[in-house]
Amino acid sequence: MARPFELLVGLRYTRAKRRNHFISFISLTSMIGIALGVMVLITVLSVMNGFGEELRARILGVVSHITVTGDNGQLGDWQKVQKTASQLPDYVASAPFIQGQGMVTHGRVASGVIVRGILPSEEPLVADIGDKMVEGRLDDLKPGDFGIVIGRELAWKLGVHAGSMLTLVSPEGQITPAGLLPRFKRFTVVGIFEVGMYEFDSGLVLLNIDDAARLYQMPGKVSGLRLKLDDIYAAPQRAFELNERLGDDYRVRDWTREHANFFRALKMEKTVMFVIMLFIVAVAAFNIVSTLVMMVADKRAEIAILRTLGASPRSIMGIFMVQGSIIGVVGTLLGAVSGVLLALNVETIVPFLERLFGIHFLSADVYYISELPSRLEWSDVTFITLASLLMSFLATLYPAWRASQTQPAEALRYE
C-alpha cells in the first residue's frame, strides 16, 4: 500500500457522512473553537508586543541605550571615553550630559524635577526629544541665556508657556553670612516637549550644559556620556565590552538595567496573558475527547469488523488518532492564518470599527497611546501553533485507546 492503513481508514472516516449529526456538530464546534482560540491568542500577544515596543521606543527616546559615568558621579575626560566608545560595534552617536535634582517654582506652585544639562547640537543624535517639541526648539537653549525646556505635563501643572519665567532651586547649598542656603536661578521657558510618558513629561527639564555646569558647580566636567546604538538589544553586550575597555574607574549601565523592573513587568504580563489565553485553546482542544468518545461508541460494530479482519489494537488506535488530529490540525491552521492576518491589520481594522460604531477604544484624552499598536513575532506564532497541535494530539489518546480495547465478540453480539 502506498500509504499506511491507519491513515487511509482515518481519512475515509473523516470524509464519510455520519449518521449521527450531533457528532458532526461537536466536531465542527471543536474545530471552530481551536481556530478562534489560536486566532485570539496570536492577536492578543501581537498587540501586547506592539504596546511593549511603543513604550520601549518612548522610553528610549529620552534615556540612552548606554550611560557611562564616573565613580563619583562626574566625568572629566568625557572626550576620551567618547573616543573609546566610538570603537564599539553598533555605535551610532554619543553626547555628554550633566544631571542633577532640583525643584522648579512658579508663583506658589512647586514641583521636584530631574535636571539634565545637554548640548543642543548633539542631543538629537542620542534622543528623540527634539522631535517631540510642541513649543520652541532645543536649539533655543543658548549658553548663558539660562533658558529651560520642560515637559507638557509640568507646564500644565505650573501654568506656564514659552516665554514664562521659572525659578530652579538646586539642593546643593551655598554658604552665606546667613548660613547654608540652597542655590537658585531664574530661567526662561524656551520650549515645551511631549514624549507621551508621564514620568518624563512631568519630571524632566533640560538646560544648556554650560548653564547646568554653573548651577551645579561642575566647571569643565560632566555627569556622564550617553550612547546610542544601532541595535538596542545589543546594549547589554556592548556595555560589558565598554566596561572592560574603560576599567573599574567608570560605571557603565545599559537601558535594560536602568529600567529592568518595568520591562520585567511587561514580560511577566505577557507570559500570564499567554497562559490564560492558552486555556481557551485547551478547552476547545479537549472537546475532541467528547467527539471521539461518541464516535467510538457509534462505530463499535465497524471496529469489531476491522478487528476480525486482522486489524491490531494499535491500528485501531491510530485510526481514531488520525481523525482527532485532523480536527486539531485544520482548526490550528485556520486559527494561525486568520490570527496572522488580523494581527497584521489591527491598526487598520480598529479605526474602521471605531468609525463604524462611533466609539473610541483608546481615547487620546485619557491614554498616552491612543492607537492600538501591533507587532507580530513569528516565534509567538510558531510556539502557539505547536502548543495547539500538541494539545489536540494529547486529546486523541484516551478515546483512541478506548477504541483499541473494543472486543469484537462483545461488540457484534447483538448485531
Low-confidence segments: none
What fraction, in percent, of the residue positions are helical?
40-55%
Shape: elongated
How many discrete domains? 2
Topology (SSEs and partners):
Layout: H1 5-15, H2 21-60, E1 66-70, H3 78-85, E2 91-106, E3 109-118, H4 123-126, E4 133-136, E5 147-151, H5 152-158, E6 165-176, E7 179-193, H6 198-201, E8 204-208, H7 209-215, E9 224-229, H8 235-246, E10 250-254, H9 255-258, H10 260-285, H11 287-298, H12 300-308, H13 313-344, H14 346-357, H15 378-404, H16 408-412
Describe this structure in words.
The protein is of the alpha+beta class and 415 residues long. The protein has 2 domains: 203 residues, no CATH class; 194 residues, no CATH class. The protein is built from 16 helices and 10 strands. Strands 2-3-8-5-7-6 form a 6-stranded mixed beta barrel. The two termini are 31 Å apart.
Q: What descriptors fit this protein?
A:
elongated, alpha+beta, 16 helices, six-stranded mixed beta barrel, 2 domains, 415 residues
